[in-house]
Amino acid sequence: QVQLVESGGGLVQPGGSLRLSCAASGSIFSIARMGWYRQAPGKQRELVAGINSDGSSHYADSVKGRFTISRDNDKNTVYLEMRSLKPEDTAVYYCNLFAPRGSFQFNYWGQGTQVTVSS
User: Fold this and answer.
1) Is the dihedral of CA 12, 14, 17, 18 positive or negative?
2) What is the C-alpha to C-alpha distance for residues 52 and 104, in angstroms, rounded to an integer?
3) Rounded CA gap, 1 and 63, in Å?
4) How many of the other CB atoms lie within 10 Å of CB of 74?
5) Sheet strands side by side (includes 4-7)
6) Please, are residues 9 and 94 in contact by the beta-carbon 8 Å criterion?
7) Strand-strand pairing, 57-59 and 113-117
8) Which tens digit of pLDDT belongs to each residue from 90-111?
9) With bands split at pLDDT 50, 70 and 90, how would you rate the model's confidence at 63?
């Protein structure tokens, strides 16, 4: 079983910064693709940033240049540094672990952490 525990959410003013963390249990973290998703009320969940096991990453256009995803395999943790936050970034942010394995795949979600950007 895999558990993902997120932390770091909160209330910040526009232009502020936050760092989200997601700690994973289990032994598959190092080979898994990790991602951060977000979902605002009444909207679909969207991919914010992803990072592969080799460290390569990708971002949604809306956050490029402002957000940075990283991982520490020794700590089984993935991070999302968010800078220059905007009200439109307000959402519940979810950590995801995905690791295909033949006919089987790992796909786990964290509980979500609220990020609110408001004055």
Assistant:
1) positive
2) 19
3) 31
4) 8
5) 4-7, 18-24, 77-82, 67-72
6) no
7) unpaired
8) 999 999 999 988 888 899 999 9
9) very high
